[in-house]
Amino acid sequence: MAQSNIESLLGAQAEYLLNHNCTTIHKDMIHAPGNDFVDRIFAQTNRNPQVLRSLQALYGHGRLANTGYLSILPVDQGIEHSAGASFAPNPIYFDSENIIKLAIEGGCNAVASTYGVLAMHARKYAHKIPFIVKINHNEFLTYPNKFDQIMFGSVEDAWNLGAVAVGATIYFGSPESSRQIVEVAQAFERAHELGMATILWCYTRSEGFKVDGVDYHASADLTAQANHLGVTIQADIIKQKLPTNNGGYLATKHGKTSSKVYSDLTTDHPIDLTRYQVANCYMGRAGLINSGGESKGKGDIEEAVFTAVVNKRAGGSGLILGRKAFQKPVKEGVELLNSVQEVYLDNSITLA
Predict the structure, then answer these.
(1) Which of 7, 107, 140, 312 gets the highest tally of CB atoms within 10 A of its CB?
(2) What is the pLDDT of residue 4?
(3) pLDDT in tens, 230-257
(4) Is-cis flag, bond preceding 74, omega within 30?
(5) What was the pLDDT predicted at 2?
(6) In angstroms, rounded to a whole number, what is the distance separating the alpha carbons of residues 154 and 151?
(7) Strand pairing of 131-134 and 165-172?
C-alpha cells in the first residue's frame, strides 16, 4: 500500500496525523521498535535465553518479520462475547482451524486464541505460526452476567501445545483485580521460567470510571497507569485500547496524579495521548500494541489504518486486531490485515 493509499484511507485526518509533531514526550526518549528490538531491549533483562528465542519467534514471523512491529490475530471472543455473537457474522470460524488459517494467510506474526482452539490444531500448526495461548477469560454465560477473569488452564499446558507466549487479561479497577494481579503475576513468572513470552491485556473496569455521563475506561491517564502495572508484573508486551479521552483521575477524584500529566505530558491529539501510554510501558521497552476494536462493517479498514498510524507514530509496536478481520469474508479480512501491516512497512511514517 503506497502512502497515497494510506492518506486516502485517512481522508480529512491525513495531514492531522501524518504531519503531527509531538512536543510533549519527545521521540528521542522513546525506545522505538526496530529490527534489533529483542537484542537491544530484552537481551539486557532477566529473561532467559528461551524467552529471548520465543520473543524473536514473535518478532521474526509474518509480513512484519524483523521490523520490530507486530500484527497479531486475536480470537478469544468465543468466550468473552459468546460464540454466537462472535461467529454468526461469518460461521466458518465456528471451525477453529479457520482462525489459524486466517492468521497465516493474513501474514500475521502470531495467532492468539483459547486453549481449546490452539490445542485442537497444535500438531498441525504450532511449528508454522507462533501460538499465543490466552489463559484467562471473562466467562459470559452465568446469569446475571458478571465481569471477572478466571483461569481456564495451566501455563504448563500452553507450553506443552507449543505456544511461544501466553496472554492474560486483568480488569484493573475492578473488585477482583487484586486476585487477578496475583494470579497473572504468578502465571507470567512460570511462563518465563518455561521460556515463553508474556502479553497482558491491560483493561480498566469499574462503574466508578463513568462520571457525569462520560466514560473514562479508555482515558489516557487511567489506561496508562494500567500499562504501568502490567509492565511491573513483567509483561513483555502490553495490549491496550487506543485512548479516546483523558482526565479519568481528575473526574473520579481517586488515586493520585499530577497536573503536569495534563499540562506538559499530553494534549488532546490522539498521538500524544497514545505516547503517554507508551511512556508508561517503560518508554517503549515493553511493546505497546493497541486493539482493533469491534467490527462496525463499513469504515472498518479506515478505522484500523487510523489506529495503526496513531500507534506507530506514538512509538507503539503494532496492532492486535480480530473482529474487524474474522467477521468478514476471508478475502476482505486478509485485505484489512494487510492494510494495517502496510502502515508499519511504510518507512515514511515515522515517530512523531
Answers:
(1) 312
(2) 74
(3) 999 999 999 999 999 999 999 999 999 9
(4) no
(5) 60
(6) 8
(7) parallel
In a domain, 260, yes or no: yes
Containing structural domain, residue 109 = 3-345
With a threshold of 0.85, does the pTM exceed it?
yes
Pull the grid cell for residue 101: 488459517
In sequence order, what DSSP letters do the residues of 302-346 get, joined into one string? HHHHHHHHHHHHHT--EEE--HHHHTS-HHHHHHHHHHHHHHHH-
Domain-located, residue 228 = yes
- For residue 95, is it left (φ>0), alpha (ψ between -120 and 50) or beta? beta
Rounded Cα–Cα distance for residues 172 and 202 (Å): 7
In DSSP terms, 245 is beta-bridged to 219
Distance CA 315, CA 276 (A): 10
Q: Which residues pair with 71 in a beta bridge?
A: 319
Residue 350 lies in a domain: no
pLDDT tens string 11-44 = 999 999 999 999 999 999 999 999 999 999 999 9
pLDDT in tens, 103-137: 999 999 999 999 999 999 999 999 999 999 999 99
Gap between the terminal Cα atoms of the chain? 21
Active site residues: 239
C-alpha closest to that of 138 among 130, 146, 127:
146
- What's the pLDDT tens digit per position in 39-74? 999 999 999 999 999 999 999 999 999 999 999 999
Q: Is residue 352 part of a domain?
A: no
CATH code (residue 37): 3.20.20.70
C-alpha cell at 144: 446475571
Q: How many CB atoms lie within 10 A of CB 258?
A: 11
What the block records as the C-alpha cell of 323 is 473482529
